[in-house]
């Protein structure tokens, strides 16, 4: 299926993949163990991989959400938090945590660190690589656990599952309602954009490149090419030969990026509800701007910062209020594929 | 009729669930023979046997190493069946089940049902010509080729060997009297039929032949039963749904209500962690198995729809897991829409007029250079699509398909002109959902009314004429699938009512044909003929407008339509 690559192109990609893996291997030295419980990981366990910095307020709900979904273990890299996140995570019985003071940017926004940990602990497991503000919904996720999904993917010989990022936002100023620790963030950020996503195909990695949503229409109207990518493939049956290329937007080998059907059919897919736009956002944007540790010189954060000071309201009259995954499926943002 | 039903159970994983189900069968009075795949480890096997050792009417048969699609599965069921027939003389029907099967109705109902039909064999059995399911395009060839390589482990060799045999026109000989039949591997046969199959003199010949057949567990009993049975009911008592890869669908907790409405006795396969299903059907017999009104059609529909979604998907949808290449979209857009070219230049109030007369959503020039002119001048439209030209132009196809998708169920109309972005001309022309009405040359009217110098007008007119001319070539190409209507400006002005009426008839609500009561107001064209003649005199030939007289009588011709039209019936 799909377009076959020439021998040379395929060899180049192979070299590239080895380069990323080598880089991840070198970057392992950045990581210092805080509390490692990876011995607990059992054969069929589903593991989350994540990097974070100063996210204490979000952690309680994050852990609860994914525990309820059926995730068995959390592998987390703490990037020099000073708000107690690290200490909190170290106490959790199902969390293994490493810490680093090294540059987030130089580890390619955490990808190198996670590639290393995935290589070491993810091999043979279903792995879910998400940020602490990303919440996976998949078909039937209100009645079936993530294990049901991964069992089905296994039976169907599907190695990777896509879940596009869906930016959620409140109605009114994003700082109007304070977020409390442990609270479901989607009680506040209830709204999303249902139909302004534009897709193109990246021929090199064969992944789809999706842009759109409230960030694109609020901050990148005149420079749409700079709008953030929304395509993600966070759920992968990992093999130590694999590597994430840029964030979870693309992987190598590139067959893992072929999460879409090209002949009219629909493959199964989910969404990552993105709880970025809460009252915590203003402070975060400011902090990230000062650190300058984000993608493309943090131009994304610069744009947010400027726009947010003027009118921090992402809501418009066409915004859709979130109900459940079935709604997302009807709107065409995700699909059940042939899972029934 | 006394006697009972014996269950031959094939187990290879989820042993805890198999224990539960085996116990359920045995405790409900059905003798059970279990075949455990020899790939199950010794400790796990011991534990499994130990957990069921208190049941007197439960036996374990000799173990085989089972692999999907191979003879080993038939062998296992033969061994199990032989032990069953030999050990339990009371058994009048043998039911082949798997470890992930779950009884949906009280076992006694099944026993009674079979006791009432003592001579009937329940086995799906159809000739190869009649079955639509076939993995890898193999149906009749299952019986005539050889398959020494594993499909699961050695796919390349499997496929290569099939290709080779096809090329060499190799064919195996089918044993005398055997007519290949296929069907679900989960059957329920009478003692008489089953023992005839197993004790037949020719069994060795048959076995030898079927050993090399592809997926023999779907054809061995299904074929041989035709030789021995007097009364075949060609259906399986086990509810089992297959997806487009031939893989069985799995049932989960949320299928509980659905399963209650099945008319089958047993369902497969059940997800081992579907606690609620096991709880409901195994422990709470009185409550859960209360007969709901059977509605097996609903199950069929749900699974048929899943296959349909996977293969064809939703027309006009572009998303993260459906991104069809050109011409493989199964519908480039989800719903009909209309494009109007030239009308907004000839009529001052075409947009509001069209909206009023048809009740549809009428946008301005969606592809205008400055911004997408959404209806009512909205800055952002359905689905949160912004009017930004930069964004639209970065991916015009996404812009259009998003708009049509977001407004499904609501007819969209928009204006188009050679001044707009032309990138989608082919896409729209090839889309059967599009209807495109063009008044050629009408783009010149704004130039006619403008204050530009004649040199500028000439240059602009030449450019626009070229663009429109290219667009018309697209619309007239043999690949165009849209409903296209093209007329020159001169033709249109001569008799504008007929095309306007056609537009309203085709767009407006189908069953409610409206008659045109009010026509839009045409712009002033006094001196237009002279203007065209001037262009010609300057060496630029405006041919798309059609033939206009160069004198002043054009002014009279266009003065008239400024009164409202009245349609005579």
Features:
heterodimer, A: 340 residues, alpha/beta, 7-stranded mixed β-sheet, 3-stranded mixed β-sheet, 16 strands, 31% helix, globular, B: 569 residues, 5-stranded mixed β-sheet, 5-stranded parallel β-sheet, 38% helix
Characterise the protein shown here.
The complex is a heterodimer of chains A (340) and B (569). By secondary structure, chain A is an alpha/beta fold. Chain A contains 9 helices and 16 strands. A 7-stranded mixed sheet of chain A has the order 1-4-3-2-5-12-7, with helices on both faces. Chain A has a 3-stranded mixed sheet with strand order 6-15-8. In chain A, strand 2, helix 2 and strand 3 form a beta-alpha-beta unit. Chain A starts with 6 loop residues before the first helix and ends in a 10-residue tail after the last helix. The mean pLDDT of chain A is 91. Helices cover 38% and strands 13% of the residues of chain B. Chain B is built from 23 helices and 19 strands. In chain B, strand 11, helix 9 and strand 12 form a beta-alpha-beta unit. In chain B, helix 3 packs across helix 6 and helix 6 crosses helix 8. The longest helix of chain B has 22 residues. About 2% of the residues of chain B have low confidence. At the A-B interface, helix 5, strand 10 and helix 6 of A face helix 12, strand 15, strand 16, helix 15 and helix 16 of B.
What layout of secondary structure does this protein have?
The complex is a heterodimer of chains A (340) and B (569).
Chain A: H1 7-27, E1 32-35, E2 46-52, H2 56-69, E3 73-79, H3 85-90, E4 95-100, H4 111-122, E5 126-129, E6 134-137, H5 146-155, E7 160-161, E8 163-167, E9 191-192, E10 198-202, E11 207-211, H6 213-219, E12 235-237, E13 243-246, E14 250-252, E15 270-274, H7 280-291, H8 295-310, E16 320-321, H9 325-330
Parallel strand pairs in A: 2-3, 2-5, 3-4, 8-15
Antiparallel strand pairs in A: 1-4, 5-12, 6-15, 7-12, 9-16, 10-11, 13-14
Helix pairs in contact in A: 1-4, 7-8
Chain B: E1 4-11, H1 15-27, E2 32-36, H2 42-51, E3 58-60, H3 72-87, E4 91-98, E5 102-103, H4 107-115, E6 121-122, E7 126-127, H5 155-167, E8 181-182, E9 188-190, H6 191-199, H7 203-211, H8 220-228, E10 232-233, E11 238-239, H9 256-260, E12 266-267, H10 275-283, H11 285-288, H12 296-311, E13 337-341, H13 343-346, H14 350-358, E14 361-365, E15 380-381, E16 385-386, H15 389-394, H16 396-406, E17 412-416, H17 425-429, E18 434-440, H18 444-449, H19 454-475, E19 483-488, H20 489-494, H21 497-507, H22 528-537, H23 553-559
Parallel strand pairs in B: 1-2, 1-4, 2-3, 6-10, 11-12, 13-17, 13-18, 14-17, 18-19
Antiparallel strand pairs in B: 4-9, 5-12, 7-8, 15-16
């Amino acid at each position: 299926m799909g377009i076959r690559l020439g021998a040379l192109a395929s060899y180049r990609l192979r070299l590239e993949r080895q380069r990323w893996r080598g880089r991840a291997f070198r970057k392992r030295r950045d990581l210092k163990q805080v509390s490692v419980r990876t011995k607990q990981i059992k054969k069929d366990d589903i593991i989350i991989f994540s990097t974070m910095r100063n996210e204490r307020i979000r952690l309680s709900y994050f852990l609860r959400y994914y525990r309820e979904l059926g995730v068995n273990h959390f592998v987390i890299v703490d990037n020099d938090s000073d708000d107690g996140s690290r200490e909190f995570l170290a106490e959790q019985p199902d969390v293994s945590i490493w810490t680093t003071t090294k540059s987030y940017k130089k580890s390619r926004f955490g990808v190198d660190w996670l590639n290393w940990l995935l290589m070491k602990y993810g091999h043979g497991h279903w792995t879910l690589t998400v940020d602490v503000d990303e919440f996976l919904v998949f078909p039937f996720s209100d009645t079936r656990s993530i294990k049901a999904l991964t069992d089905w993917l296994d039976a169907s010989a599907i190695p990777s599952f896509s879940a596009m990022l869906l930016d959620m936002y409140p109605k009114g100023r994003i700082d109007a309602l304070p977020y409390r620790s442990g609270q479901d963030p989607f009680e506040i950020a209830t709204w999303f954009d249902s139909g302004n996503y534009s897709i193109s195909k990246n021929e090199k990695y064969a992944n789809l490149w999706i842009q759109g949503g409230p960030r694109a229409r609020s901050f990148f109207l005149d420079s749409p090419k700079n709008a953030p990518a929304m395509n993600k493939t966070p759920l992968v049956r990992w093999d130590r030969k694999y590597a994430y290329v840029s964030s979870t937007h693309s992987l190598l080998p590139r067959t893992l990026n072929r999460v879409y059907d090209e002949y009219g059919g629909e493959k199964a897919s989910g969404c990552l509800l993105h709880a970025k736009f809460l009252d915590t956002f203003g402070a975060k944007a400011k902090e990230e701007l000062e650190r300058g540790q984000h993608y493309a010189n943090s131009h994304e954060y610069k744009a947010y910062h400027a726009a947010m000071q003027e009118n921090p309201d992402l809501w418009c009259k066409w915004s859709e209020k979130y109900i459940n995954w079935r709604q997302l499926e009807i709107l065409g943002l995700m699909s059940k594929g042939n899972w029934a | 009729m006394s006697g009972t039903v014996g269950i031959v159970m094939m187990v290879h994983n989820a042993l805890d669930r198999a224990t539960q189900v085996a116990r359920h069968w045995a405790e409900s009075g059905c003798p059970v023979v279990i075949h455990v795949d020899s790939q199950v480890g010794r400790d796990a096997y011991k534990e499994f046997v130990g957990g069921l050792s208190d049941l007197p009417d439960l036996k374990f048969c000799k173990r085989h190493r089972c692999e999907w699609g191979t003879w080993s599965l038939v062998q296992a069921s033969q061994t199990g069946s032989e032990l069953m027939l030999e050990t339990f003389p009371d058994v009048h029907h043998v039911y082949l089940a798997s470890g992930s099967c779950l009884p949906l109705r009280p076992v006694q109902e099944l026993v009674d049902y079979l006791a009432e039909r003592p001579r009937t064999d329940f086995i799906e059995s159809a000739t190869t010509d009649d079955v639509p399911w076939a993995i890898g395009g193999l149906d009749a060839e299952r019986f005539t080729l050889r398959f020494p390589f594993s499909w699961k482990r050695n796919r390349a060799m499997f496929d290569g060997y099939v290709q080779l045999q096809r090329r060499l026109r190799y064919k195996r000989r089918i044993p005398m009297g055997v007519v290949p039949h296929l069907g679900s591997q989960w059957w329920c046969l009478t003692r008489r039929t089953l023992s005839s199959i197993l004790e037949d003199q020719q069994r060795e010949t048959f076995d030898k032949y079927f050993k090399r057949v592809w997926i023999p567990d779907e054809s061995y009993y299904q074929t041989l039963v035709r030789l021995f049975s007097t009364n075949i009911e060609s259906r399986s008592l086990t509810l089992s749904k297959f997806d487009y890869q031939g893989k069985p669908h799995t049932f989960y907790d949320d299928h509980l209500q659905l399963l209650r409405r099945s008319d089958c006795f047993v369902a497969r396969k059940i997800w081992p962690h579907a606690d609620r299903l096991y709880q409901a059907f195994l422990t709470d017999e009185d409550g859960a198995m209360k007969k709901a009104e059977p509605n097996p059609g609903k199950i069929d529909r749900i699974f048929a729809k899943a296959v349909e979604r996977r293969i064809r998907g939703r027309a006009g949808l572009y998303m993260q897991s459906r991104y069809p290449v050109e011409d493989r979209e199964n519908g480039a857009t989800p719903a009909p829409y209309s494009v109007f070219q030239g009308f907004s230049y000839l009529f001052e109030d075409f947009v509001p007029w069209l909206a009023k007369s048809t009740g549809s959503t009428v946008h301005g020039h969606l592809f205008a250079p400055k911004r997408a002119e959404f209806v009512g001048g909205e800055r952002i439209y359905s689905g949160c699509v912004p009017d930004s030209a930069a964004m639209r132009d970065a991916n015009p196809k996404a812009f259009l398909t998003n708009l049509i998708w977001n407004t499904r169920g609501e007819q969209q109309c928009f204006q188009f002109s050679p001044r707009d972005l032309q990138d989608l001309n082919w896409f729209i022309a090839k889309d059967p959902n599009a209807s495109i009405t063009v008044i050629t040359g009408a783009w010149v009217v704004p130039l006619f009314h403008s204050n530009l110098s004649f040199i500028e007008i000439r240059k602009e007119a030449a450019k626009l004429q070229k663009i429109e001319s290219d667009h018309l070539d697209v619309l007239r190409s043999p690949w165009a699938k849209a409903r296209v209507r093209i007329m020159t400006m001169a033709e249109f002005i001569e008799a504008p009512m007929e095309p306007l009426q056609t537009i309203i008839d085709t767009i407006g609500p189908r069953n409610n044909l409206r008659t045109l009561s009010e026509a839009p107001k045409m712009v002033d064209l006094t001196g237009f003929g002279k203007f065209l003649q001037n262009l010609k005199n300057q060496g630029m030939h405006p041919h798309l407008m059609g033939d206009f007289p160069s004198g002043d009588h054009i002014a009279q011709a266009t003065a008239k339509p400024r009164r409202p039209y009245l349609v005579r019936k």
